[in-house]
Amino acid sequence: MRTAKLEALNIEFPLESGERFYDDGFVESVSEHQRGLDLQYADKEYGSEYESDGQCYPARTFGLFPKRICHIYYKKFGDDLYNLFVRAHEETHTLDYFNRLDLLEGKILRESKIKIKLRKIGRKALRKDDVEIIADIGGIHVMYQEGIIISATYSAATEYEKAKKIYLKALEDKTGLRLGYSILKNFAKNIY
Ligand SMILES: [Zn+2]
After folding, report:
1. The pLDDT value given to residue 184
2. Ligand 1: distance of its center to the CA of 137 in Å?
């Protein structure tokens, strides 16, 4: 059986018949890579296309009707931890696309002992911003497991702040403490 292996999140899940997942890794140029994929799939019939761009660290998920094919790829930054965050962010988009956010909810519950209902975030209107909030929560979780809460952000600032708020609120609910962002910083081993 084919599986999708998400290395930053450390999640693996089975794919349905016809579904494909490719982690294309770090690429020199995101736009060049995107053009390559456009050419690769140009003669195929698209079902729906899911695309994160602009504010997102670029990733794309192609829906080739009736199959689903997902590629993720990302730009490399000079910082290993930030690269980890970016990968986890894109991998969370992948889970979202394959309707497997339950796997990340379970992981967050096991590892951080907090309950975050990812699938409830913004699902009424399904705004693109909400998709980014969900993806950032995946990134934040991985960083938190590393002992880090990123205090600054590199892009998608509004969505990142919302994601951080949701994560911190869940931690506060667990501990019964009003941690607040500045206090929580003291718990982190490293601060960005
Ligand atoms: Zn994104």
Report:
1. 42
2. 11
In the reported structure, the alpha carbon of residue 133 is separated from the centroid of ligand 1 by a whole-number distance in angstroms of 8
How far, in Å, is the centroid of ligand 1 from the Cα of 35? 19
pTM over 0.90: no
**Helix, coil or strand: residue 168:** helix
CA of 186 to the centre of ligand 1 (A): 28
pLDDT of 150 reads 59
Distance of CA 53 to the CA centre of its chain: 13
Contacts for 94 with CB less than 8 Å, ≥ 6 apart: 4, 6, 21, 59, 61, 70, 72
Tell me, in angstroms, the distance from the centre of ligand 1 to residue 65's CA: 23
Which residues, at least 6 apart from 85, have a Cβ–Cβ distance to it below 8 Å? 139, 140, 142, 143, 150
Q: How far apart are CA 164 and CA 166, in angstroms?
A: 5
Q: How far apart are CA 78 and CA 87, in angstroms?
A: 14
What is the tens place of the pLDDT at every residue in 30-43? 888 888 887 887 76
CA 91 to chain centre: 5
- Distance from the CA of 134 to the center of ligand 1, in angstroms? 9
For residues 11-27, one letter each, b for 16 or more C-beta atoms within 10 angstroms of the residue's C-beta and e for the rest, the string is beeebeeeeebebeeeb
